[in-house]
């Protein structure tokens, strides 16, 4: 809604100013703890500007960092903040290395991050409570009613009620034939004929129409009434009979369309962002890590067992198109390449076990990413034999192939990697792959990459 878009823009500007103020305060407090005074030295003043600039950039990636309304659950708000701080730390560390700012006090940096996180986190908690109080008070500037008491009406009411829609207040249901056994029957204020008088007497701003759309005369009459009295009439179609899950609705010119499966990567802008990141990230790994690690790993592989340095194998990619997937060879040369690796697999060499444990065997796949066959993050490409088998026994198995496969994925960082002896293990992996597709965001990719690196450091029991 336009007024909510206006609210959102003001909200973002206000919270950005508040965040920068809190960051400045955090710098002062941290300097006091570290050096005993509030005055920042010149280098730390420059660092403060860089710190604030990085926060502004990060907030641009994740709009929900600036959400205090109830449409985003409290735990989700703090998860967004945590993701934002992780990305912020990554960008800031890169700037420190690039601009050679290593003389900065690590202790001051730690104090600053802790105090900034506490201050911003606490501010969001306070603002969320203030928003909740404002929403439920008589100061709410937008009052709305719902026409109808069917499933769509109840679902709409529950959504607004649970999410504390910013600055709005529910004033009642209107229906000619309400269900008096409904737990919400006490909220019915009258029939549809009573609606007009009620709206005028109670300064109603918005009317949500959830009845069947076959009564054109009634809809036209309410539309004319709304126009004459400066009300917003919102028509909420009831698709509950044909749609049983979250969907995407969009317009092609003036034609409304519904996408049954929610998939953010359907949007070309999201695909461009993901592809641009894949190119930059894979080029970085190929140019800076590969030249150093390749000679060491190649020598170790050759010493451990005779055979090629690289292992290549056909894997199903996006829409089941086969591509040549590259890895460092971790097994002795054998004729059982379509057989999944198992714990204590005799085919795996000692060097191969280390490469698998640390995920270093996947490094050549960054060339696959650069070529466009893979992404840095996405569902892991399974064996061709697994595709043939599991697509017949797992209902949603093929859905994971709607997106480009990845070097690492949501299922892998959630504990579902390694051998899949039983069907239910693959079902869980597919479940997480589908969740990734339906909830993709740039910050989600950053979190998965961070967790992948963290798992490489601490080790995983299922990595073999």
UniProtKB/TrEMBL annotation:
<feature type="transmembrane region" description="Helical">
    <location>
        <begin position="12"/>
        <end position="33"/>
    </location>
</feature>
<comment type="similarity">
    <text>Belongs to the bacterial sugar transferase family.</text>
</comment>
<dbReference type="GO" id="GO:0089702">
    <property type="term" value="F:undecaprenyl-phosphate glucose phosphotransferase activity"/>
</dbReference>
<feature type="transmembrane region" description="Helical">
    <location>
        <begin position="45"/>
        <end position="66"/>
    </location>
</feature>
<keyword id="KW-0812">Transmembrane</keyword>
<dbReference type="InterPro" id="IPR003362">
    <property type="entry name" value="Bact_transf"/>
</dbReference>
<protein>
    <submittedName>
        <fullName>Undecaprenyl-phosphate glucose phosphotransferase</fullName>
        <ecNumber>2.7.8.31</ecNumber>
    </submittedName>
</protein>
<dbReference type="InterPro" id="IPR017473">
    <property type="entry name" value="Undecaprenyl-P_gluc_Ptfrase"/>
</dbReference>
<keyword id="KW-0808">Transferase</keyword>
<feature type="transmembrane region" description="Helical">
    <location>
        <begin position="107"/>
        <end position="128"/>
    </location>
</feature>
<feature type="transmembrane region" description="Helical">
    <location>
        <begin position="78"/>
        <end position="101"/>
    </location>
</feature>
<keyword id="KW-0472">Membrane</keyword>
<feature type="domain" description="Bacterial sugar transferase">
    <location>
        <begin position="274"/>
        <end position="457"/>
    </location>
</feature>
<dbReference type="InterPro" id="IPR017475">
    <property type="entry name" value="EPS_sugar_tfrase"/>
</dbReference>
<feature type="transmembrane region" description="Helical">
    <location>
        <begin position="279"/>
        <end position="301"/>
    </location>
</feature>
<dbReference type="Pfam" id="PF02397">
    <property type="entry name" value="Bac_transf"/>
</dbReference>
<dbReference type="Pfam" id="PF13727">
    <property type="entry name" value="CoA_binding_3"/>
</dbReference>
<keyword id="KW-1133">Transmembrane helix</keyword>
